[in-house]
Every structure is written in structure tokens, then in C-alpha cells.
Amino acid sequence: MASRERLEQIYTIVAQIPVGRVTTYGRVATMTDGATARMVGSAMRHLPAGNQLPWHRVINASRRVADHGGAARQRDKLRAEGVVFDERGRVDAALLWP
User: Fold this and answer.
1) DSSP string over the chain
2) Residue among 96, 84, 74, 95 nearest 26 (CA)
3) How far apart are CA 21 and CA 42, in angstroms?
4) Per-residue pLDDT tens over the stretch 56-81
5) Structural domains present in the chain
6) Are the CB atoms for 35 and 29 separated by under 8 Å?
7) What is the value of pTM for the model shown?
């Protein structure tokens, strides 16, 4: 699959994550032809300004927000949607989509 097609597939999957739910980079990768979790992370990192994708709903495999420059903003956006973090910064597994 061409890189552009894979990117579009990643974006299509991320667009479907419901409000108040999260998924992991790896889960998105398994739903994408030929993608890896790292590719999904890179796609989220390089979203064009002004996009409407719910990038903040994609977290790491340990159910935590990855450590990056927008981590605080990501946590705030998730909390605004009702996502609760435990004392270790993890999201309840019941909130994982799909």
C-alpha cells in the first residue's frame, strides 16, 4: 500500500473513535494495511494545523498519554470528554475502542 493511502486509512480510523473513548497506536496499526504503531504516532504528530481529527484519543499501549510536547493538552482534551486517569496516569481498559 502506498504511503499516502496508508496515511488516509489511519486518519479514517482515528476519525471514528467515539467521544469519551480511546484507542492505542497499535490498535490503529492493526486496522491499517501495513502500518506500525510508530507510523500511527508519526501520522498523529504530523497532522496539518486546523485538522478536526480526534488525535487526542490515541494513546500508548500502557493506556497512558505518550510523553510529548502536547501531552498536557491531550490529557485536558480527554478529561473534557469524561476520560478519567487513575493514580498512575492510565485510562481504564473499559474505555478502549474498539
Assistant:
1) --HHHHHHHHHHHHHTPPTT-BEEHHHHHHTSTT--HHHHHHHHHTPPTT----GGGEE-TTSS--SSTTHHHHHHHHHHTT--B-TTSPBPGGGB--
2) 96
3) 21
4) 999 999 999 999 999 999 999 999 99
5) 3-95 (1.10.10.10)
6) yes
7) 0.95
